[in-house]
Specification:
About 45% of the residues lie in helices and about 25% in strands. It is an alpha/beta fold.
């Protein structure tokens, strides 16, 4: 088994989270500008043992503004990395759950305002949902 890499994909920013090699623990990785996401993915795939991709799908409760960009992202991910399986996970309320986790974890308000942090924690929530399936 290898590491699962999760994405909370957004048009401006994308949150990333990763598991350990046994896929037991989900950990936040970082929030990056979506402009550089393909470079970041290439770096992670080249340097790590990525065996799975997990993508938050906003369409489980119906179409959203982000549904089409996420579908395009998944299509390109399949094309660029055909050997790595892609798992789509319901991302409904992941941002709300991420904010709640940050508050309960005692994260300072100034850090919670950082959108990259929220995206990164949202990706972790999505990855935890995948692991719990």
């Amino acid at each position: 088994m290898g590491k699962a890499l999760a994405f909370d994909f957004g048009v401006k920013r994308t949150g990333l989270a990763i598991t350990d090699e046994l896929q037991i623990i989900a950990s936040p990785l970082e929030g990056v500008s979506t402009e550089i996401i393909w470079d970041k993915i290439a770096e992670l795939v080249a340097s790590g043992k990525i065996s799975d991709f997990v993508v938050g799908d906003p369409s489980f409760l119906g179409e959203t503004n982000n549904s089409e960009p996420v579908r395009k992202f998944i299509t390109k991910l399949r094309k660029e990395y055909p050997a790595i399986p892609i798992h789509e996970v319901d991302e409904s309320f992941s941002s709300r759950d991420a904010m709640s986790a940050m508050v309960q974890g005692g994260m300072k308000k100034s850090k919670r305002r950082d959108k990259k942090t929220l995206d990164m924690i949202s990706a972790t929530v999505i990855l935890q949902r995948y692991l719990g399936q």
